[in-house]
Amino acid sequence: MTIALLFICFFALLAVGMPIAFAVGVASLIIIAFDPTMIAYVVTSKFFSGIDSFTLLAIPFFIFAGELCTESGLTARIVRFANVLVGRFFRVGLAYVNIISSMIFAGVSGSITADSAAMGSLLIPSMKKEGYDSDYAVAVTATSGTIGALIPPSILMVLYGSLTSLSVGQLFLGGIIPGFLFGIVLILVAYVLGRVRGYDFRLSHVVEDSGEPYWKELLVAFRDSSIALIIPLIIVGGIVGGFATPTEAGVLAVACAMIAGVFFYRTLDWSKIYEASFRTAILTAVVMAIIAFSTLFSDILTRNDFQNWLLGAIGMVSENRYVHLSLILIMMFVLGFVLDVTAMLIMFAAPLAIIGATLGFDPIHFGVIIVMVSLLGACTPPVGTLLLIGCSIAGIPLTRVVKTVGWFVGAQLLVCIFLMFVPEAVTWIPSLIFNR
């Protein structure tokens, strides 16, 4: 009864337009106020304990690193490298540039919103200029932005690891192959849709053709973007090697981005650093508010045995653990239509992790799959954050892109299903490094 009332209050508050962080918090407070078994001090205790984590300090540092890369022009250099690499030789080449750039930038910021906003502001206008339809450009940009939460570093992996007491380093490594699989299927869908629509664009106008030999231009582009390729190696190597915690790795990412912008490219000045800091503070405040309120929500679910209730409910359908996992993933996918991915993970990560362990799934495999399916909600209306960012940049309504983005999200969902039955694709790299 308590769980049902909690969800009813939450969705009712969402329906009247209350911001998600406050809807989560107010719904939780209503339950605490009318439930005699709940103690008032739980509110302040859980509210502050939710954000009182050294690991969570990694989040603002990774956000700041991504903002510095955008301000210093490193993002544009990443796009140039991807453009020289594939943009001029293949049909729908700029769509490939978009996806590959997101895969590279994912190794710097770890933020899906930073990735989508940075790539979208550069590539959506360029794709429209070349003749791509706006809905196609937005769909490619939004879905490729999800890769930022899989290829390390990843803010969502840091969050999931913090909430479930799992190794962030192992989660980082577990996301590598899924991240590349997301990129591959997005390229395939972009190619098929591009051929169906008659796109045959090879030379991108993101940068002017220098007239230099291809190999020389590629070397120059690689040199200019090499820092973006080095940063993820430093981050992951530091965590896996035991030289740095995720938070300290975030500091290293900021230091690398700062050094590159100030001393190598000489494009960062105090005004740009201030702008990057200001945007980081706003994004961090939003994330931390969601974490604080959602921690209270999650605690109420756990106290009322939500995990056992859910296991009992899906156990009535079948005793097969893969059927159980499939139903959990369907639930997370559907919730993604109305919930922000960050809030959804905070609310359900802890109880779902208990369910995964009860069903006998490897915790790293289970965690990566949960994060992957939750990410799809960022590309589905009406609350799809990445879709909203892309549509605002392209200047089109959300309804115009729904059909197109469905093809890309469908392909990503197939990857999730594949990985559900092939856990080695997630656990192989962590097992090599950590001797699991």
TrEMBL record:
UniProt similarity note: Belongs to the TRAP transporter large permease family.
Its biological purpose: Part of the tripartite ATP-independent periplasmic (TRAP) transport system.
Gene Ontology MF: a single term: transmembrane transporter activity
Subunit structure, interactors included: The complex comprises the extracytoplasmic solute receptor protein and the two transmembrane proteins.
Keywords: Cell inner membrane, Cell membrane, Membrane, Transmembrane, Transmembrane helix, Transport
One of the record's GO cellular component terms: plasma membrane
InterPro entries in UniProt: DctM, TRAP_DctM
Localization annotation: Cell inner membrane
Positions of transmembrane segments: 47-66, 136-160, 172-193, 226-244, 250-268, 280-302, 322-354, 366-395, 407-434
Membrane topology qualifier: Multi-pass membrane protein
Source organism superkingdom: Bacteria
Name assigned to this protein: TRAP transporter large permease protein
Residues of the TRAP C4-dicarboxylate transport system permease DctM subunit domain: 7-424
